[in-house]
Amino acid sequence: xxxxxxxxxxxxxxxxxxxxxxxxxxxxxxxxxxxxxxxxxxxxxxxxxxxxxxxxxxxxxxxxxxxxxxxxxxxxxxxxxxxxxxxxxxxxxxxxxxxxxxxxxxxxxxxxxxxxxxxxxxxxxxxxxxxxxxxxxxxxxxxxx
Amino acid sequence: xxxxxxxxxxxxxxxxxxxxxxxxxxxxxxxxxxxxxxxxxxxxxxxxxxxxxxxxxxxxxxxxxxxxxxxxxxxxxxxxxxxxxxxxxxxxxxxxxxxxxxxxxxxxxxxxxxxxxxxxxxxxxxxxxxxxxxxxxxxxxxxxxxxxxxxxxxxxxxxxxxxxxxxxxxxxx
Amino acid sequence: xxxxxxxxxxxxxxxxxxxxxxxxxxxxxxxxxxxxxxxxxxxxxxxxxxxxxxxxxxxxxxxxxxxxxxxxxxxxxxxxxxxxxxxxxxxxxxxxxxxxxxxxxxxxxxxxxxxxxxxxxxxxxxxxxxxxxxxxxxxxxxxxxx
Lengths: 145, 173, 146
Description:
The structure holds three protein chains of three kinds. By secondary structure, chain A is mostly helical. Helix content of chain A is 69%, strand content 0%. Chain A is elongated and about 80 Å long. The termini of chain A are far apart. The model of chain A has no long low-confidence stretch (mean pLDDT 76). Chain B is an all-alpha fold. Chain B is extended. The model of chain B has no long low-confidence stretch (mean pLDDT 71). By secondary structure, chain C is mainly alpha-helical. Chain C has one domain (5-145). Helices cover 72% and strands 0% of the residues of chain C. The longest helix of chain C is centred in the last third of the chain and has 33 residues, at 104-136. The radius of gyration of chain C is 19 Å and the shape is elongated. The chains are: A mainly alpha, B mainly alpha, C mainly alpha. Chains A and B meet through helix 1, helix 2 and helix 3 of A and helix 1, helix 2, helix 3, helix 4 and helix 6 of B.
């Protein structure tokens, strides 16, 4: 541990925590077949990104970026960076809108296939394409495959 | 973190949705400690409120339990570990947490803080930036929300109406 | 949910309070945390809560789906209209000085108010229409299943 200061470790622990959280979300998305669970994994991923940005905006000893009402600004007070807040605020709302779009798609998939498991849908697709090949195979000249 | 791990394990989707609601609430508390009160507000209202309701609505329309996974977890685990390692490598030369001299603090932010009081005069800087300095962004975000809404309506509502009409025709004939 | 007396009574009290809070968040967003996005979501939550505890039909008597779908566009139009107005009066797009050319600060505040209003309307309507869309196809779940 020579050359790596304690401050450096503590100062970066938050990034590593969020990276871990992000990877948890990514793992759910990649490894699980259930679509609702994938969406929740995606949400966790998104929250981790949001936390990462917000933590970047934090200033040591800073306070929430709201000026006092009388408009007399004390230059001694440091404010936390408001820019990431703005960006992430809209990102959350847009996130829920797109999430609901995804959920709507899931509902439609369920109505179409009767399942929300990736594996089942893949099998159903295979079956459909095999049937179509049998049906139209002769026309396209690959008889009986 | 613990909730995230629990979310990987559980198979009952209902419990999962409840977990994600709690997760949102905790992250809202975290945002308050990070001085992002606006964001915390949004997260509490959106994450713990609306999204839980929507997820439950989806569950009611689909199924409540997840099947056990068929694949081995090693490949996804490997992919995730490599990606995570790459990201952590990327953070190595990031500024320390709470550093007032970080690049992100030096460029636009002092400009906003200095000009906001006499240009706009709204005490909440987040609102001022949201609606005025970054009005284009917010217009775009609103348009995205609007489009998503249209998408959901197009996917779900119209079909329901068509089906109802079809049912009515069948009854007539 | 016919049998849940406590839920029904509490909801009747809460729904109004939540709406009031939503308007507070909307119009006080200049001074305290809050703004169009949050207020929109909170207002939608008031309707959704009412719809959950009573029935969707009750809510749809107050906010029929066609109205929700129109207000969805109205909010975005209000936002973009503010921008176009300032464009037409010879300023930059979304430059709120156009709203009160002699007192730029008032113009800014009015502009923020209008824009946040547009955002709030859109978000409320979108959340509500999403909720309607989902509920519109949900089979009614009996009390005993919960």
